[in-house]
Write a structure and sequence with these properties.
By secondary structure, the chain is an alpha/beta fold. Helix content is 31%, strand content 25%. It has a seven-stranded mixed sheet with strand order 4-5-3-2-1-6-7.
């Protein structure tokens, strides 16, 4: 089973939140990063503008209004690096393609209460997630606790990725989660 670490950025800690971006990295280093064109802009506050929106890779596209964009870096049939900008339906198709390269997927995140629900929403609901994705996600917060480490520890400091220049970019955060997991394994 391939471990995949992921993170999302979204419009707030409330029931009607919408996805801004998602980042995933497999244990073998293959990445998927997507920014959503159809997030609810009315929910964007100053904190999100300053800490999340400014760390988006394709933000400049919002002024040019493209329908979508996908960039692939492949190695044979393997999708080593996928970057997507578009509406949820486009991102769902590209994410499904990326996940299919793995026989079985075990999902890991950090404080995944919102992340997992939003991941499921990309596919419509939990029963529609790709068949190769294990339906039970795992959380590094719990792993920290089990290992006797304060679950409130700075992830970047623990992972020795302190520059934090990309903090609140979903792919960067997924990479930090992966590194934390590796250090605890």
């Amino acid at each position: 089973m391939t471990k995949v670490f992921f993170d999302t950025e979204f419009t707030g800690l409330h029931q009607k939140t919408t996805l801004i971006s998602i980042g995933l990295i497999s244990e073998c280093g293959k990445t998927f990063y997507a920014e959503f064109l159809d997030f609810d802009e009315s929910q964007i506050n100053d904190w999100l503008r300053e800490n999340v929106i400014k760390n988006m890779q394709f933000l400049w596209h919002r002024n040019n209004e493209p329908k979508s964009m996908t960039r692939y870096n492949t190695n044979g049939d393997a999708l080593d690096k996928v970057e997507v900008y578009g509406k949820t339906e486009t991102i769902k198709i590209r994410l499904d393609e990326w996940l299919k390269q793995f026989e079985q997927v075990e999902i890991w995140s950090d404080c995944l209460s919102y992340d997992w629900v939003l991941f499921n929403e990309i596919f419509g609901h939990a029963f529609n997630i790709p068949k190769n994705v294990y339906y039970i996600p795992f959380d590094i917060c719990t792993l920290f606790k089990v290992k006797g480490i304060d679950p409130d520890i700075s992830r970047e400091e623990f992972a020795n990725m302190k520059d934090g220049s990309q903090k609140h970019n979903a792919l960067w955060d997924a990479k930090v989660i992966k590194r934390c997991f590796e250090l605890m394994s």
